[in-house]
Amino acid sequence: MCRNITTLRGLEPPATEEEITAAAVQYVRKVSGVTTTAGMARPEFVAAVEAVATATRDVLLALPPRRQPPATEPPLRRLGVVQP
Question: Which of 15, 19, 41, 76 is within CB 3.0–4.6 Å of 81 for a Cys-Cys bond?
């Protein structure tokens, strides 16, 4: 559905809050049709991002470890924003 969301499960070090939130924002933007979050402080958008981030955190904690790391690094790691 959304090509910009990468696999966070199995990263070493584990996915950060920043990576989880970035994935949640990307997902909510995609399903809502909102192309930019500039000036987008509507409570509905923020609440949706928080709900998706919480669900992402929960599923990452609940699933068993991966045998191999994901094939691609998340964008924030590729850009050097998140320090491994």
Answer: 76
